[in-house]
Amino acid sequence: MPTPTDAKPAMPVIEFRDVEKQFDTKTVLKELNFTIERGERVTLIGPSGSGKTTILRLVMTLEGLTDGYIYIDGAPLVYEQRDGKRVPVSKRQQKLLTTRIGMVFQQFNLFPNMTVLENIIEAPIHVLGINKRDAIDRAHQLLEKVGLPDKTDAHPTALSGGQQQRVAIARALAMDPEILLLDEVTSALDPEVVVDVLQVLRDVAATTDVTMLIVTHEMSFARDVSHRVMMLDGGKIIESADPETIFTNPAKERTKKFLAAVLRDA
């Protein structure tokens, strides 16, 4: 029997290796290297244009990768090394990996022609092949979790922004993701409903072991739910530490200035 010391170390759930992303001639991310462990909740902070949302969109394969590699559980997501060359992975492999990733966007992205229930069950049925009855049962459970059990037959246009975002969270969770990406999920909301949406996400963090990669300007939320906070500036991670260290004793002067400005505005 192998001893614990003989066991192979667990692969990071997400790994960025020498990642570069350009838009036309502008380099947004350069020589980006980091890993995220299973069940870890990591928040990306930094000024606008520092590449935070681009990182999420690369993991979701919504943006192309200019250079480098991204791995999900050790498997290449977009490109791999084969015979000494950097070549694209198969579409099948990419799809298998992305079905394990959920994303909640700033602008909700619900289908306006579908009811709340239909929005939630669409992907589990047609992407994961889940039985419709099981998908409906799961949708009801999730709507209860996000505090909207009576909105199954409503259309998105009949809901407030905060309600739409909670439906979007339920829709992402319906895919039973291994990784949940959160992209400024409160930035399009009125201030009075931000608390409700953040409480839903706090509950998700407290009651599941899903790995979270978060972009937010809600510093109190980042401090509460994160295991680690990474500060980006100029397309690079300039500091990475636990929330207590980042928010009370950051090592970099740039981090201090950014947090001072954000917390002053808040």
How would you portray this structure in words?
Its main location: membrane. It comes from Enteractinococcus coprophilus. GO terms for molecular function: ABC-type amino acid transporter activity; ATP binding; ATP hydrolysis activity. This protein is α/β, with parallel strands linked by helices and 266 residues long. It has a domain at 105-176. It is built from nine helices and twelve strands. The strands form three sheets. The protein has a six-stranded mixed β-sheet with strand order 8-9-10-3-11-12, with helices on both faces. A four-stranded antiparallel β-sheet has the order 2-1-4-5, with helices on one face.
What descriptive keywords fit this protein?
alpha/beta; 9 helices; six-stranded mixed sheet; globular; 266 residues; 12 strands; membrane; four-stranded antiparallel sheet
Write the layout of secondary structure elements.
Elements: E1 14-23, E2 26-36, E3 41-45, H1 52-59, E4 67-72, E5 75-76, E6 79-82, E7 85-88, H2 91-98, E8 101-104, H3 116-126, H4 132-145, H5 161-173, E9 179-183, H6 191-207, E10 211-215, H7 219-225, E11 228-233, E12 236-241, H8 243-248, H9 253-265
Helix pairs in contact: 3-4, 3-5, 4-5, 5-6
Membrane topology: Peripheral membrane protein
Domain ABC transporter: 14-259
Family: Belongs to the ABC transporter superfamily.
Secondary structure: helix percent: 25-40%
Shape: globular
Biggest sheet statistics = 6 strands, mixed
Span of the ends, CA to CA: 55 Å
Low-confidence stretches: none
Oligomer: single chain
Strand content: 25-35%
Task: Order the strands across the largest sheet as they lie in space.
Answer: 8-9-10-3-11-12
> Averaging pLDDT over every residue, what do you get?
92
Q: SSE string, helix = H, strand = E?
A: EEEHEEEEHEHHHEHEHEEHH
How many β-strand runs? Answer: 12
Q: Provide a count of the helices.
A: 9
Query: What Rg do the Cα atoms give?
Result: 19 Å
Helix- and strand-based class? alpha/beta
